[in-house]
Amino acid sequence: MSSKLKNFGLIGLGMVAGVVGSMQIDALAQKNASSSLPLDELRQMTDVFGLIKSDYVEPVDDRKLLTEAISGMVASLDPHSAYLDKKAFKELREGTQGKFVGLGIEVGMEDGYVKVISPIEDSPAYKAGLKAGDLITRLDTTPVKGMTLDEAVKRMRGEPNTKITLTVSRKDEDKPLFITIMRQEIRVQSVKAKMVEPGLAWVRVSQFQEPTVEDMAKKIAGLYAQDPNIKGLVLDLRNDPGGVLPGAIGVSAAFLPKDVPVVSTNGQLPDSKATFYARREFYGSRSFGDPLSKLPDAVKNVKMVVLVNSGSASASEIVAGALQDYKRATIMGTQTFGKGSVQTIRQLSPDTAVKLTTARYYTPNGRSIQGLGVVPDVMVNEYPDGDGLDALRLREADLPKHLTNDKSKEAEVTNKVNELEEEQRLAALDKKRKPLEFGSKDDFQLAQAVNFLKGLPVQVSKTRVVENKKEPSINDPEPTKGEK
């Protein structure tokens, strides 16, 4: 691809493809006492600090210099580790609770500009008309060119009820667009649900937050109250970037037998070597009792399809991987993002923290999806004529310094669509389309999932995927009943 999304994030959330493994309030006290400190390098660091203080063209604040040094040190590890200053830490905590102040867009960098990957449903950006693929070239009067993504994100965030004007370049527009948006506290409803037709339900999880398990249980219970004879259920995880680990465990537990392993983790620390089961203690709740107790028994056996795409990451992949390993559901769509690592929040002070990658996670059958993703049982493109711009999306294996897959020597999945000719063809097709609303009558993948549940023919993709051939019994599961 001639230009790739170099990084991405949610305005106001501070994470997209992250699993927040735990929120630990203790100071960062995990040390390896047996390893000696590199004294020569530490002396060099203090020497450089002294040189900057004495020789730099203008005075530099000590605190700023040290903070930037910490930030750079953590960011050098992998794409998902980060130093969280006061503002970022506050936003992360708010984000996991399902609220944040901002515009409500998932963004990336392309050719030095901020690219809109997707506006969050019902957000100020969504209502203002921002579209996937828009390039933001100015923030108020300040050019974006030359900014880092983090700098641009900070400028777009702010206090509630303050305005920002974005200068937007759109492929099918000859002139720049000027879009003014009011920043607001956005409460993200992470679960939507409805009956798509008699006997067939659709449940969408857009992000895994603290309220997700409880919200999903209420929505599913409501669907069964509406139609007690549900014969098929579509769990929609497309473009779900992840979120809190207990949410993924709880969503999986809703459909799996009680007490079965859902996901395991492994890292350096003893507490990072763990197995998480489909039990109340592992998915938690903001209220007393088990939120899944609200679900009817039928939900454990209802025929299921899980929809995924290249935007399904981390916690989404935990759910898809677990349901696939137990052959509980047919996974349908396109290959997922491939983020198989767990991030833990270690608090440094009352207002700051480090988000640190502390473990890799594994599906119940021991698969690592790091850099590979989950391969659907049934490959279905986003549109009848192809996968559109979804085929050009960045994956974990495209990110600089990403962790390797410790379970497979097979090639990791990167974006193979790298010819300008193909990119232009897909972009031309995308211009003719309205923005896809998941769950709408124009949702082609959902229509194929419904066909599958009804035993009707499914229009499958001919897309080639990269699979972990080392464990064919895991990545090539037996066809689900009714699959052709």
Automatic annotation (TrEMBL):
Residues 461-484 are annotated as: Disordered. Residues 464-484 have a biased composition (Basic and acidic residues). One of its GO terms (molecular function) is serine-type peptidase activity. The keyword Transferase does not apply. It comes from the Bacteria. PROSITE patterns: PDZ. One of its GO terms (biological process) is proteolysis. InterPro entries: ClpP/crotonase-like_dom_sf (IPR029045), CtpA/B_N (IPR055210), PDZ (IPR001478), PDZ_sf (IPR036034), Peptidase_S41A (IPR004447), Tail-specific_protease (IPR005151). Keywords: Hydrolase, Protease, Serine protease. GO terms for cellular component: outer membrane-bounded periplasmic space. Signal peptide: none annotated. Coiled coil: none annotated. Residues 89-157 form the PDZ domain. The keyword Hydrolase applies. Belongs to the peptidase S41A family. This is S41 family peptidase. It comes from Noviherbaspirillum pedocola.
